[in-house]
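Q: Hi! First time doing this. I have a protein sequence and I read that you can turn it into a structure. Is that right? Here it is:
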Amino acid sequence: KKAGPEATKPRKDPAAVDIFAAVAKGSLPELEKTLKDNDLNMLNLSNETLLHVAAAHGHLSIVAYFVVAALIDRGTDINVHNKKHYTPLLLACEMGKAESAEVLMEKGANLGTRTPAADTALHLAVQAGAASIAALLLSKGMDTNLRNQAEETPLHVAALRNHGALVGLLVSAGRGHTDVAQQLLHHKAPVNAQDKQAKSPLHLAAEQGHKTLAEMLLKARADPNAQDKEKKTPLHTAALRGHLSIVELLLAKKGRAGAKDMDGCTPLHYATMKGNTDILKLLLASGKNKNINDRNVWRKTALHIAAEYGHGELINVLLSHGAAINASDSSRDTALHCACRAGHLSAVSALLSWARGEKANLLAVNSLRKTPLQVAAFNKTENQAQILTLLRKKMLITK
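A: Yes, that's right. Below is the predicted 3D structure, encoded as structure tokens:
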């Protein structure tokens, strides 16, 4: 069949199916026989040309053959799009097919083509962890500042995927012979670039617990106190996710333990919420306990949070470091009110057992004029009976 108006329509005939199968398999001799009288522009049911299929499967000889044939013999478009609006180069990058990508680039594939999500070839190569493709794109001058629809640079993608080697490539633009920070500055890779949520690559590394990557970003002058849309810093994120090594690293780089997000929460609030004793102690030591009674927008301290979440051990840690046992929140609830309402026996026990300094006020009333005992009696929980018994015994002892 000769090339013509019908040649670019999706094919369903067995001969066309066989040709696409041969491309996927990588059988060049078979293809050379069958393609003599067929059109290189034919499409499969996904609107992919033979070149798309060859690029995605990574058969170097096949790709070289088709690119040469397309450019010289038949004039097939090397930048043709499939149904996903991907060119053969974008497909090769997404699939991590280095040889395919290299041949396509050598033959003049458009490096500026993007996916519908505005991902560049570099974004896709980074997603695939294809360092060799990324290096090649960078050597051809691919811009590291380009963003996709999510406002992510390739560096954001690398941080999410934990491709440490790729971050090095992006930071040094493929050279890697001098200090990473110097290369970063020289090539202007956006180490503090923010995505749609205003997260920096360091936020993402902290979120995922990627210490090596976080170290690399900090060495390249990433801001340890950068804030996202919720005003969370990387330290908030690391504390919330329970990544002790990242918390240590950020504190060593002057991450602020007392930083507040849009809800007024400090990293200490989040470490307490997650019940992470090691991170809690680290944050307290870093701030010399000065942030221990910091309040969020609901005027809750870390002690309120520990009581609400039933972390009895953390209550003891907080109290031993100077937490105010009778601090009241915006509803005038003390930590004891919170523990009673949630039905956390261990938290109630820890608060009632505290014997050093100020003790829990059993008669404190909240904004509804309720004492902890009344709150416990009103809220039916699994441990209600035991909590009521504890409170009544304590009240008898303290009379």
